[in-house]
Amino acid sequence: MTNEEQKTMVYIVGTGPGDPGLLTLKADSLIRSADIVLYDCRAVEPLLHLASAGAKVVAVERNLYEDGKGDREHTPMVEAIREHYGEGKKVVRLKAGDPSLFGGEVDECDVLGRIGIPYSIVPGVSSGAAAACAYALPISRKFESDAVVNIIANEITDDFALFRDAAGLLRHGATMVLYMATDNLPGLLGIFREEGIPDETPVVAVSKAGRIDEAFLETTLGDMGADGFSLELKDPVVYTVGRYVRVRNLPEPEQSRSALFLKCPQ
């Protein structure tokens, strides 16, 4: 693809969980060669220094939708993309983690397709994947866990029906990865107990996966539901739950992240 052809494409770039070392080579190259870098999430800020001195870096107002409705064609991000693309600029829109995972409320792809702006998506490392690899969690293994279920759990509107169904997969040995679940943990733990998930089922909770202040806790569903339990981890936390989940390795701290991988007291 020539430079001129690249300028006619909008790039939606996944930046991973925040560690610049987890950025893909393609993402790094696109950020460095962009004319315009757009972002609406502070988690991507550690990567903004990659933009060239001649690039314009723009913090765009974040616009969320209730019930998935709203005028998506005129959000601040879409308007910013439309403006700079119309000027013939090479536009890179940064998204934390992986753009395909839980990005629906800020997903511009459908709109860009409707208004005729071509785009390309560059994958990024999700916080769940970063957590699993950092601690060598066996989230899927042949003859053990043949399924990994990713669930976003910050807004529960179905009286936990989804989690009741998902509990059946846990009984079969599947691994469940929960995002944004901290506020609903008491309800989730109660549902799992009602559905017969054993209290000794392992849980690994990782706070700020892939960031400089990452921390983790290895526990069980029963311990998390016990009176007086305190998580002692700062959000965002990703929870990996499953019969076969266990910490098999501690990350070797890099010089800039020394003494940060501390196991929280149980």
Could you explain the architecture of this structure?
A 5-stranded parallel beta sheet has the order 3-2-4-1-5, sandwiched between helices. Strands 6-7-10-8-9 form a 5-stranded mixed beta sheet, sandwiched between helices. 24% of the residues lie in helices and 18% in strands. The protein has helices at 3-7, 25-33, 76-86, 109-114, 127-134, 161-171, 185-194, 221-224; strands at residues 10-14, 36-39, 56-59, 91-95, 119-122, 148-152, 175-179, 202-207, 215-220, 237-241. The protein starts with a helix and ends in a 25-residue tail after the last strand. With 266 residues, it is of the alpha/beta class. The chain has 2 domains: 3-125, Tetrapyrrole methylase, N-terminal domain (Cobalt-precorrin-4 Transmethylase, domain 1), CATH 3.40.1010; 128-257, Tetrapyrrole methylase, C-terminal domain (Methyltransferase, Cobalt-precorrin-4 Transmethylase, Domain 2, 2-Layer Sandwich). Strand 6 (148-152), helix 6 (161-171) and strand 7 form a beta-alpha-beta unit.
Brief synopsis:
The chain is of the alpha/beta class and 266 residues long. It contains eight helices and ten strands.
